């Protein structure tokens, strides 16, 4: 594919790396920052164009006239929208994907985006909305450190840490069927001291293992209890931040939980208080030890730091954890910080960049791949694919899972067929239009998966 990426920031650069290293895509990146472009060109086989992303002349010099896709991920919503409009009206680029951060642009009362009547964007990526959804899912399942849903939430991938107290810890993986005979679950990966272990029936689960499993939503807690002592549901939640993620999250949680929100700006705090019916809005600094003490942070079940400042998020979460908060979730923009975080201090670190990349790849990848979830800082993935054809035209359809030659480290975790979720059934014959949920320990093996499709 010939793809033009607008913006050489963290997301644009990471996306360019994915697309260049995975395939022989023809990738061009446009930005006004010369240093960022030079760095990209030195590391990867791609073209760079220096200039404003909305200028037709600049887009033309990037080959817009015969481009297959334009991906707009600059820091300006308006620039992204205008560039998509020009790409459609002037150059007739068939696929346009844009990152739109401001929730006001996605207001259902004022529909803006439509190929036929509006701003012509095929797919909108809203990082704030994706992050809010992800955190809300983590709140529902207290033991989970990572969670992702597939095929209209019919099947979930969950990652938990195995601790002493879990019934399966110290036992072979095959015993899970004895403990939970009526629960369909597939353990697709185990990471022990950062090393991938492909799980088989005789694999012994050890305390400290990171275990990835696939199951249906109603069985998540039952499976989690096999790997750790089940945590009590959250009751008291404290949110640090006054941006769209914090406010939207508070709105979603305030009916079912006791929610407090800390905002540093007094005017913004007053505006937020008017929007939230059952949330206690506090004016102050979330890393203020005295404020946290007054608000009894030691009784908090979950502290969520989602300001736009990485350092503030990390410091406030570490302080809250030291003062007695049971669990902390932190939003971290910088990749370098993600790699430095001590997992024993910060329970869950969420990367907006990785979340956005996952959503972008879901729309960019071809060959029947309909959803991508990046894991482990982008090194691993879970993908949802659709099998098409018959035994003569497809390498998947008409075959059992055992017959399919998957790349090393790849595991089919579930098959979704209409309303039926089929998990851990090696003898099931794959049919046309089945949705397959596949775990990849190395995302680079996506090329082999696409050949199967």
Structure description:
By secondary structure, this protein is an alpha/beta fold. It has four domains: 2-125, Rossmann fold, CATH 3.40.50.720; 131-227, Alpha-Beta Plaits (2-Layer Sandwich), CATH 3.30.70.1450; 236-351, NAD(P)-binding Rossmann-like Domain (Rossmann fold, 3-Layer(aba) Sandwich); 355-451, Alpha-Beta Plaits (2-Layer Sandwich). It has helices at 10-22, 34-43, 56-61, 77-89, 127-140, 175-179, 220-227, 244-253, 266-275, 289-294, 310-322, 335-340, 352-364, 446-452, and strands at residues 2-6, 26-31, 47-50, 69-72, 95-99, 123-125, 146-150, 155-161, 185-192, 195-197, 210-215, 236-240, 258-263, 279-283, 302-305, 327-331, 348-350, 369-375, 380-386, 410-417, 420-423, 435-440. It has a six-stranded parallel sheet, with helices on both faces. Strands 14-13-12-15-16-17 form a six-stranded parallel sheet, with helices on both faces. The chain is globular and about 60 Å long. The relative contact order is 0.10. The model has no long low-confidence stretch (mean pLDDT 92).
Brief summary:
The protein has 453 residues and is α/β, with parallel strands linked by helices. It contains 14 helices and 22 strands. GO terms for molecular function: potassium ion transmembrane transporter activity.
Q: How many structural domains can be distinguished in the coordinates?
A: 4
Tell me the number of helical segments per DSSP (H or I, 4 or more residues long): 14
Taking pLDDT < 50 over at least 5 consecutive residues as the criterion, the unreliable ranges are none
Multimeric status of the protein: single chain
The CATH superfamily name of the largest domain is NAD(P)-binding Rossmann-like Domain
CATH fold annotation of the largest domain = Rossmann fold
